[in-house]
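Weekly sync notes, structure subgroup
Attendees: PM, AL, DS (notes)

Item 1: joint prediction request from the bench team. They want all two components modeled as one assembly rather than separately. Inputs as received:
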Amino acid sequence: MFPRYHPGAPVSKKTVIVLGIDGYLGWATALHLSSAGHDVVGIDSLVRRRWDRECGTQSLIPIKTMPQRVTLWRRLTGHRIDWRPMDLCDARAVTELIRDVQPDALVHFAEQRSAPFSMIDLPHATLTQVNNLVGTLNLLFALRDHAPKTHLIKLGTMGEYGTPNIDIEEGFLTITHNGRQDRLPFPMQPGSFYHLSKLHDSHNIQFACRIWGLRATDLHQGVVYGNHTDDVAMDAGLSTRFDYDAIWGTVLNRFCVQAALGLPLTVYGKGGQTRGFLDIRDTVACVRLALENPAGEGEYRVFNQFTEQFSVKTLAEKVRDARAAHGLTTNIIHLPNPRVEREEHYYNAKHQKLLDLGLQPHYLGDTLIESVIDIVERHASRVDPVELEQPNVDWRRGGTAGWRKPLKKAAADRDASHRPVVVSSKSPASTIPLRGTEKERRVAQTR
Amino acid sequence: MFPRYHPGAPVSKKTVIVLGIDGYLGWATALHLSSAGHDVVGIDSLVRRRWDRECGTQSLIPIKTMPQRVTLWRRLTGHRIDWRPMDLCDARAVTELIRDVQPDALVHFAEQRSAPFSMIDLPHATLTQVNNLVGTLNLLFALRDHAPKTHLIKLGTMGEYGTPNIDIEEGFLTITHNGRQDRLPFPMQPGSFYHLSKLHDSHNIQFACRIWGLRATDLHQGVVYGNHTDDVAMDAGLSTRFDYDAIWGTVLNRFCVQAALGLPLTVYGKGGQTRGFLDIRDTVACVRLALENPAGEGEYRVFNQFTEQFSVKTLAEKVRDARAAHGLTTNIIHLPNPRVEREEHYYNAKHQKLLDLGLQPHYLGDTLIESVIDIVERHASRVDPVELEQPNVDWRRGGTAGWRKPLKKAAADRDASHRPVVVSSKSPASTIPLRGTEKERRVAQTR
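Output from the run, pasted for the record:
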């Protein structure tokens, strides 16, 4: 089944199933592990592409189909990725997969991963929590029954912690209370139905480790930025997603798109919201470190997976400053915050365990920001400026009138309006699109 | 809609929806609130009766249908309970209910509430978590959109806390760490997929209070014993369920059935497992106290709802001693523990808030134990001794071969075998049924 052996393979070659291989990080991770000589099986239901159609969003960078991508990867590197379309919510399929493959490890990205998507309305909140919970329960029982020694590497989120007024530890905290002491799960305060779904998973997984002796690493990941790993950058056909819209986009990618278009960077609220961040190259490295240094039998461990913490405002300033170095002016504006969150707060989260395993962080610098802006400029014709305007999901009221925009209709609009998406590093002033007109059209469309 | 006004009504009469009115506690609570002059709407999907058929279990005390019960209640007291069959997982029905009734409060018992049931296998774990989560999400969104001032009184469980080595506070804990301090959710370590589902709910509800300003009381309830409240005791037709089997039964009720049959009391493991307990009369009083002293806008509060804590072994000894006072000998035996839990541990859980609101506890004494045994003796012909044998769900392996026993088949077996369920306070020795034979039959049946 896995006939190839890579000359640069690590001492201990692993068979690993990447769940959610079609996503932003799943794909980059699968290539990284495959490149490192591990045998990779990739599964995905491709639901992320369907959600794009539902939301009227799309990856800025065109991405190939899964069969095209794995074929190209094999042609370029000789590595085989065993691609299997499958829905993790299909319990029988999950059981058969685990029983047949007998993997050393699972890397589990296969969840609905957008906080705004989960806050649109009741059906989206329910979909998020049920989808994420059921998929993970299916995995846990399949592991118990068919592969109890397999190491589950689960993508969690730093957002499970919220913003407590004390230092955030890695999963557990020693608490002294009324003269007694215990090491207990860190108290969690997630900030969306999505983040809550990850916390529900964390509790279920921790329980399964305790009662069944399973082994799991819960990667409480920060916000990822960037798009290029060595593998992804090898060929345009190997590209991974780049999301910049208000539902799927992460904040730095979004700022870079705004900067490339000469639009103001839109900070939600005061911008003092501080979070952990990391480069996509560190994401794939962290997963590999977890894979190659597995948890023990019955062990549930948490790694805080980020390299630096920034406030949103600081991030905006970094983008502005990187542009200023080239003589370009970038404005920062503050929008009413669609989320319910503290905008000024203490934040100090530990992230030592992955460093101890050997992580060599890529810190955020001007070069990275410029490289992301370069990417945006190469795909400028695909930018939909409407996606860079007001956020379209509010934590209090849910999705606004414009949250759902059928892609084809939007594309037709774009063609018809000849909207001036002129992207240039040289003339930011000329690039601001006709937002007023567009907005009126959008509102009319959705009524 | 609620034309009657009770002369003894409290100063502030409330309109309250009891969700899960057909259950052990839902029914007793509905009567208590109705009796106190509140206007009660009761909903239930009747799924608990279907689960009985699936598991081959039944209430020791026969219970009437919902229409029969509410009709009888009205005839006896003049109080109207507005009974509406409805599934909480039906989002549209929930929305219409909340919009139409505009209740002052919801009392939410409508969840799968058995830990062993949730541990049978993957489908039962998934059913438990999805059912409980989706029903509660439906409520939260309906409240946000149609009745944001309504007070949600949610039945949680002391089992959310697990057994930490520090004192258990009521929901929140002030933590000092590295010189900083915050008041944070108490760290939770639930012990089954059922208990986990309650924790997931707690997190979702807490979040909804924070972002939408909803008001909620999460009653972290201990293990309930007893069967009679003033209202339930009024007429046999008003009886509430009495579960003693290994899936639905609570421990003290179960011991009382064993004692009544002269069977040994079966303690799981060492029996040092310590939990909070309360009398069913205190359950209904606590819910009423929460109802009449609502949470504030945006407030999520936790009351630990129990009155005393006992180890399982101590409980068994109490039952034994109550019997010994009448010259009856009761043996206590220890079975291998089907659960994964600490059998000797520190346990000290606070339960002050309901006392502060005026709760007058009914502490566990010989009288209560004797009254429960009296109940059992009155319904002795309905006892299925097989249900008192080895537990049929194991935390590590799930449901054993005998967990599922179609009720009709079992009843037929019982009739055919003339099993000697002779129950008497006087001759315990004669009452031990033909367990060996029965067991062999059961095993044959399920293969």
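Discussion: The CA atoms of residues 117 and 247 of chain A lie 6 Å apart.
Action: AL to compare against the crosslinking data before next sync.
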